[in-house]
Every structure is written in structure tokens, then in C-alpha cells.
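anyone seen this seq b4? input:
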Amino acid sequence: MTSDSLVSLDTLAEATDRLLDSIRKLGNDDLTGPSLLPGWTRGHVLAHVARNADSVLNLLLWAHTGVEIPQYANMFLRDFDIEAGAPRPMDAQLADNEAAAKRWLAVANSLTDEAWHAEVRTRQGRPIPATEVRWMRLQEVEIHHVDLNVGFTPADWPADFAARILTQATVDMNRITTAAAEPVPAFSLRATDSTFSGIVGTGTPAQTITGSVAALAAWLLGRSDGADLTGELPALPDWK
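predicted toks r here
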């Protein structure tokens, strides 16, 4: 990760505060309503965001101590914690998310420069410098804020975040389409509000999809049906 792509802790705190402000406006009845993630209620999203904060805290403790602490003990417990946490009432959900965010940011603010450059591994086993954990957490906060389905949309993402997540989503979708059982015809992406352009798929693109940076990113991430984009939208493979 280069220095110009390092997520500041102030940026993370601001994104977290926006999310917590949205959570504070919810009532108990809202928690059982659907999120934008298939099969998940808003309660599932809130449980996941809190447990994610604890999981990336594990990575910071690993970087701080040098003792390997996996992001999640195992995927069964990860999924169990989300299901167990989803039905909780609003006061418990809010308190959990406030405390988890506070724990994470407290440890993050205490890390030395040496610790930030220590190597840890994501739950998929990918080795990364601890600095990248900041970006991991920011994605969880910003994207799942949208998933809560409470009026915060990709158009509300800060411009810097939208630009970076679009670049990453383009790279990741190229990886996914390459591995897909059914080939995806190559297509171009062009942002109408920045200089961004990209290609997904192999070969010569047959069409160009245009729209704002945030709209393109939301579609690639499966958070939009692409109704606000122009061009003939291909069916995208599922995220893996």
C-alpha cells in the first residue's frame, strides 16, 4: 500500500460516526426489515458490522504483539455470531456497535509506525501490511451503511472512497469474470464525473457502460441494478 492510499484514522472515525448516527435513528421494528443483502435483515447487518470491528481488531493486536491472532477463529463461529446477534433489540445493537468501534479505534490510535507495517493475514489467507486493515474496515463501514437500507446510498459516499472502491471493484470483477464458468463479454467502464475508465473481461469490449463513479462502483459491487447507468448492462457473476 502506498502512502497516498493510506486511510487516515480521522476518515475512519468520520465514516463510523455517520453509520452510528443512522443506527441511532432506528427502532426495534426497523431491525427486522430487509437490508439490501439477500436473506439478511438490518439486524444481521448490524451484528456483522460489530463483529467485523472485533475481527479487524484481532489483526491489529497481531501486528502489535507479533503473536498470530486470526481475523476469525473460524467461519462457523463468524456466521453463528451474526445469526445470534441479529434478533437483539435496538439498544443492544447500538451499544454493541458503539463499543466495538471504540475498541477498534482505541487500539488503532495506539499502534506504532513499526506495528502498522507488520505483516498480518486476512481471513482468506492473503498477507497484507497492517496499514491495509484501515481500508478493510472503511469498506465494511461505508458499504454496509448502504446495505442497511435506511436512505444512505452510494451517492453519499465521500468522493475519495467512491473513486478507490471503483478501481478495486473493477480489478476484483476482472478476477471473478476470468474464473466464471460462463464467459462474460468484455465491456468498458467510463465515469461521467471523473477521468476514470476501465475494462472488465478479456478481448475487445463490445460496449461501454457510463455513469457516475459511485453508480458504477455500486453496480459492480452488486449494490445497484444499474438503472442509473447508460449502456447495455451484462449479467455479472456473483461475488466470491
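The first strand starts at residue 119 and ends at 121. The chain has two domains: 3-152, 159-220. kinda curious what u guys think
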